[in-house]
Amino acid sequence: MLGRTLNTHQQWLCRRLADLGRVVSRQVAIPDTGPEIQQAVREALSRADLVVVTGGLGPTSDDITRELIAEMLGQPLVEDAQVLAHIEAFFAQRQRPMPARNQVQALVPAGARLLWNPHGTAPGLAMVVRPNPFRSGGGASWLVMLPGPPRELRPMFEAQVVPLLHAELPLTEAFVCRTLRTISIGESALQAQIADAMHPFTAQGLELGYCAKTGQVDVRLAAHGGAAAGVVAQAEKALRGLVGEAIFAEQFEELEAVVVRLLTARKQTLAVAESCTGGCLSHRLTNVPGASAVFQAGLVTYSNAAKQRFLGVRAETLAAHGAVSEAVVREMAEGARTANHADHALAVTGIAGPSGGTPEKPVGSVFLALASAAGTQVKHQVNAWDRETFKQATANQALEMLRRALLGMS
Amino acid sequence: MLGRTLNTHQQWLCRRLADLGRVVSRQVAIPDTGPEIQQAVREALSRADLVVVTGGLGPTSDDITRELIAEMLGQPLVEDAQVLAHIEAFFAQRQRPMPARNQVQALVPAGARLLWNPHGTAPGLAMVVRPNPFRSGGGASWLVMLPGPPRELRPMFEAQVVPLLHAELPLTEAFVCRTLRTISIGESALQAQIADAMHPFTAQGLELGYCAKTGQVDVRLAAHGGAAAGVVAQAEKALRGLVGEAIFAEQFEELEAVVVRLLTARKQTLAVAESCTGGCLSHRLTNVPGASAVFQAGLVTYSNAAKQRFLGVRAETLAAHGAVSEAVVREMAEGARTANHADHALAVTGIAGPSGGTPEKPVGSVFLALASAAGTQVKHQVNAWDRETFKQATANQALEMLRRALLGMS
């Protein structure tokens, strides 16, 4: 609550739960004091069939969630020998002495199920509250406590909470959800293009959702009931018929991962030459595990001297057209391809801002080029965003030029 | 609640409010349906002196917050001529027709104060709920509604909400808050180093907080009351005496911004040669507005061929020591410095993982070098993190080598 940490759990858990057909009705963040934690858990148990609590399971004095919840539910804490052995083994494997305080993590509320934690010391806990004294009618609720670190929470959710939901809180009817990731079409334009074709499916119960990011729009198709799979499949088919070329991925895959995957399958290599994106394009490509098989080099040629030295851009071209020009981006891409003996080279040059614009070339102006064996193509865009958004949007456009070329789209 | 958008408002608003001496007691996210919005606002008004609502002020059919809150508080919505003129001017300036739906954004609950929006169409709104029917005792609460886009919300908060808080909800006593950003010392080690020295100040009411990020720990010093300024200043002095060299910035400044600022002041230039960080270092440096004055080029030499071609790393060095070695990182830095005629060059080579490690050089092994007029220094680290954290941690270490050199630290 001091704003020192960005809460990524909300997005991650909401996405996973929503894609499993669960309706998330509320997310609450509170200070880690006893009354606030108990009050928030009590309110959540009064409302929901499933309450997920994150954090507060560590070994330090402000990790009090386990104790407070056991107390609230009237369950004694019992030391679990298997958990203690797991914690001891965790430290032994890392050749570090086990601090005495970590022993508290082996305490388990009576009746709780253990969720094993291969990535840390604190196990997760799952308890059914039945009868539920906080809920009018007393209907049961499940209370799931997960450790705070994302690298512990996420695999635990996938491997242990998802099966628990299927077994203990089964959906009353089938649920199907597909996300198709699109690029290059704005959210309103995309809606306008597909609205009529989607109408018959929304009439049959299709839930159609959009989420716009920088230059990308995710389309979520979901449906409940016996006909769900058919409705979603037909809606996807119609969507692909209308805007298929703009769909770059399904579910979670990022554009840079798609490009690395396509290059890897074709055994082709890539070099990039960046000016205004300043390394963003190389950074994103090299975030993909295995990128080294296809990515040879990124030349972040911010200065004109560097464009000449590393890419062979000619002084006359720079003098005649300026660094932000079709002629220069073409020489950058071709120079990067030649210097690296690469199958493909991407180049970008533009004005990221906030300063440096002119009436003729305003902030956000950018030229992009792709040089391949078949020749060089150039695009011009105006990405009038703040500096960081500009870099991401421009990197998206460059990656998309390559994706389309690799798939033989015009 | 579908997990399609990351909520950054919580962190940003909590940080600003906490640093202004306000205690944030709860953050709630809800679906944008009428009953959920009204219920959540009602609960918040029953608890707090200040309730901040974000989003739902747009022109589309799911932007219903304005109407719902006016209805809940029994205030009619009245079209405001000045707001309408602002919205019309906003579209006129962009040479776009004003959609009819945007007129709804000129509706203002009777008695509300307008918070002007220079970055968008929807004004913010501030209302005092007095008497407050939702609060036991009826004590007044302020309700502030802000537009959802961060580029609209943040300047509006700074320019208009902060003065409103000072005027309408003044603190009952003085409050002082300072954040000192440290690097290279782990959170526990830092606590151990400063605990004794901080004790007299915490005894005088100093609130001492830590927030650990990748390789960095922010230390927050805060105090209330007449002696607050003195206590915080003395604690800061003591902290600087103990770990002063590790303090790289105050408040919000990022490490890359510090490095660009120091280079700019010295009129010195920088080139970087990256292998395992894959462009992350260049990307971060070029996120800083004005970086082009000091940053000449980044050579992302992922392949050995690129290390030889662009940096002049010798084939014999690669063959004798391998790409991840002290000898190679030294040649990378010196090669980047020479090729770019730069005052300084940073180089990194390592194993980002998840694969590629050996028993001798495990995943996370990295060599860093800084070449300057005075010579070349090399460091070895093992950053055993996931791939993206590895890249950020390594970039931090490289930037820190340069910061220390620029400030004449050993």
Secondary structure: elements and pairs:
Two copies of one chain form a homodimer.
Chain A: H1 9-19, E1 27-29, H2 34-47, E2 50-54, H3 65-72, E3 77-79, H4 81-93, E4 107-109, E5 113-115, E6 124-129, E7 141-146, H5 150-168, E8 175-183, H6 187-203, E9 207-213, E10 216-224, H7 228-243, E11 247-250, H8 255-266, E12 270-274, H9 280-286, E13 295-301, H10 304-311, H11 315-321, H12 326-340, E14 344-350, E15 365-372, E16 375-382, H13 387-406
Parallel strand pairs in A: 2-7, 12-13, 12-14
Antiparallel strand pairs in A: 3-4, 5-6, 6-7, 8-10, 8-11, 9-10, 14-15, 15-16
Helix pairs in contact in A: 2-3, 6-7, 8-13
- Structural category of chain A: alpha+beta
Oligomeric composition of the shown chains: homodimer
Largest interface: A-B, 75 and 76 residues
CATH superfamily of the largest domain in chain A: MoaB/Mog-like domain
| CATH topology name of the largest domain in chain A | Molybdenum Cofactor Biosythetic Enzyme, Chain A
Give unreliable regions of chain A as ranges.
none
Gross morphology of chain A: globular
Q: How many E-type strands of chain A? A: 16
* Radius of gyration of chain A, in angstroms, nearest whole number: 27 Å
- Specify the CATH class of the largest domain in chain A: Alpha Beta
- Main beta-sheet annotation of chain A: 5 strands, mixed
The strand order across the widest sheet of chain A is 13-12-14-15-16
Spell the H/E element sequence of chain A: HEHEHEHEEEEHEHEEHEHEHEHHHEEEH
> How confident is the prediction overall: mean pLDDT of chain A?
94
The level of helicity of chain A is: 40-55%
Second-tier CATH architecture of the largest domain in chain A: 3-Layer(aba) Sandwich
Continuous helix count of chain A: 13
Into how many domains do the coordinates of chain A divide? 3
Distance between the termini of chain A: 50 Å
